[in-house]
Amino acid sequence: MRYFVFGLLLAGCGHSPAPQFFGADRHEVTTGGVRFVVYQKEDQAEVVRLGFLTRRQRDAVPVLMTRAAEEATGCRVTGPAAGPWRSPSLPGDTGEARLQLKCPPI
Q1: Read out DSSP for 24-72?
Q2: Residue 48: CB atoms within 10 Å
Q3: Cβ–Cβ contacts within 10 Å for residue 17, how many?
Q4: What is the pLDDT along the chain (106 residues), one digit of tens a residue?
Q5: What distances in angstroms separate CA 35 from CA 20, 48, 82, 102, one per listed residue?
Q6: Which residue among 6, 69, 98, 101 is least crowded, i.e. fewest CB within 10 A of its CB?
């Protein structure tokens, strides 16, 4: 019970970006019925899934994260972020992803 209450408290908190994304543009997107926050800085994006999903529902999340990043930024995702932008998460993490973008010239 105590973990449930702690989880509810955390769920009520707003999400902050990773330090590499401090000062980034913030977008909230719902794609495929899943809510995401997308932080864009330069040609990089951090996508964070919001809310609870069952294991079965999480199967589609990696594709939805790519779609959310593209919808929010207007850029094309070219793959996972590399170098200092790289995600510390394990491959297949459905809670957070960092992606490399190819944005059209302004």
Answers
A1: -EEEEEEETTEEEEEEEETTEEEEEEES---HHHHTTHHHHHHHHHHHH
A2: 20
A3: 17
A4: 554 444 444 444 567 899 999 999 999 999 999 999 999 999 999 999 999 999 888 999 999 999 999 999 999 999 999 888 888 877 767 899 999 999 988 7
A5: 22, 9, 25, 23
A6: 6
End-to-end C-alpha distance for the chain, whole angstroms: 52
What is the rounded distance in angstroms from the CA atom of residue 36 to the CA atom of residue 31? 8
DSSP state of 17: -
Whether residue 68 contacts residue 61, with contact meaning beta carbons closer than 8 Å, is answered with: no
Strand partners, 80: 99
Structure tokens at 81: 């972020």
Whole-number Å distance between alpha carbons of 90 and 16? 20
Inter-CA distances, 106 with 2, 80, 81, Å: 51, 23, 22
Give CA 88 to chain center in angstroms.
13
CA distance 70 to 9: 30
